[in-house]
Specification:
The protein is mainly α and 147 residues long. It is built from two helices and no strands.
Length: 147
Amino acid sequence: MTIEKKVNDLKEKASELKDDLKLKADEAKLAGEEKLNDLKHDLKQESAEQSDAAHSQLEDAKAKWSDAQQQAQEKLEHLKTEASHKFEEAKLKANELKQEASVKFDELKAQATTKFDELKKAATEKINSFKKEDSAKVDEQDKDQQV
């Protein structure tokens, strides 16, 4: 897997986490609003004696909703921070891998140059050998023709 793909994957995961958190916050908000609406409806139906208890429940629901909102915000901030750290780690790793690849490439290039020089030398020796053999054959043919 390439570094760019890893970075893109980390970005995608961070985006998914962000979207998931937003969805959960919206669900919590809707649930809070539904609970709040239920409590308002109950208050209208309850008698005056139960009014204080219903009001207390309403305040509890508001406090819970407020707490849920705060927790969702804190979690979102935490996930943003975590995603940022992971992204920075991915960038560092990408730079390390790039450096390692550069070193390996230079080593391979040096090895290839050495091997190429060896092959070139061997080819040159082989060609010279063929030339000497051809020259010897030509000299032999010249001797045969002179005789």
